[in-house]
Amino acid sequence: MNNDQRLDVFHQVLYGKKGNQVYAVLDGASIPNLQQLFIEHKVDNICLYRGELEPDLAEMAPYLAHLPPESSFTRLLLQKGWGTHLGIFAISNGDLRTLRMHFRKFLMVWDSEGKPLYFRYYDPRVLRIYLPTCNADELQTVFGPVEAYVLEGETPNKLLRFTFGADGLGKHEITLPEINVV
Fold first, then answer.
1. Rg (CA), the chain
2. Distance CA 122, CA 106 (A)
3. CB of 28 within 8 A of CB of 100?
4. Percent of the chain beyond pLDDT 90?
5. How far is Cα 103 from Cα 122, in angstroms, rounded to an integer?
6. Which of 30, 88, 114, 157 has its CA 20 to 30 A from that of 176?
7. How many angstroms separate the most distant Cα atoms in the chain?
8. Are 77 and 86 contacting, i.e. CB atoms less than 8 angstroms apart?
9. Element housing 63 (H / E)
10. What does the pLDDT read at residue 3?
11. Which residues of the chain have pLDDT under 50?
């Protein structure tokens, strides 16, 4: 199998249904020079944190990015970023603003003593464990305008697609084609 076959699988999962858009919630702490990559690849994006940020925080912050199917940035993420826990993908018919408002809701959670904690749900290692623990009301909140979440499995050759509907949480695991290393 080659990289093109692997990209075909990603594209089928992410872009197979017409009309929906694909977004990524990306971890600035996991992607060196993310803001520069946004500029170079002309990526429509927005920080999930509010206001003017100090440069160090802006570099480490989570960002929401729109991923058109033929974008060079999308290709870069799927070819070089998969397996590095850089973020999660969301399929939705919502726009960037709607999704920003949705994803901002989950940045902070509170422990049993009322202490605020950052919730790094955009790390696929967190989301793939968290979603199956949610009840129906929690899933309704987490999904909101999102039709499906797509993220890395426990190994880089696994892709997970989570959906929520009348039957509850749906989880579909896909084994990705291996990449030929020359």
1. 16
2. 10
3. no
4. 85
5. 9
6. 30
7. 54
8. yes
9. strand 62-66
10. 72
11. 1, 181-182
Q: Residue 154: what are its φ and ψ, rounded to 5°?
A: -65, -25
Contact 182, 161 (CB under 8 A): no
Residue identified by tokens 């060196």 is 32
In whole angstroms, what is the distance from residue 173 CA to residue 170 CA?
Answer: 10
The whole-number pLDDT of residue 182 equals 46
Each domain of the chain, given as residue ranges in start order, spans 3-175
Kindly tell me the burial class for residue 62, based on how many C-beta atoms sit within 10 Å of its own C-beta (0-12, 13-18, 19 or more).
buried
The token pair at 90 is 């969301």
Q: For residue 110, give the DSSP letter.
A: E
Spell out the residues 6+ positions from residue 164 whose beta carbon is closer than 8 angstroms to its own.
139, 140, 142, 143, 170
Distance from C-alpha of 69 to C-alpha of 24, rounded to nearest angstrom:
12
CA distance 179 to 166: 37
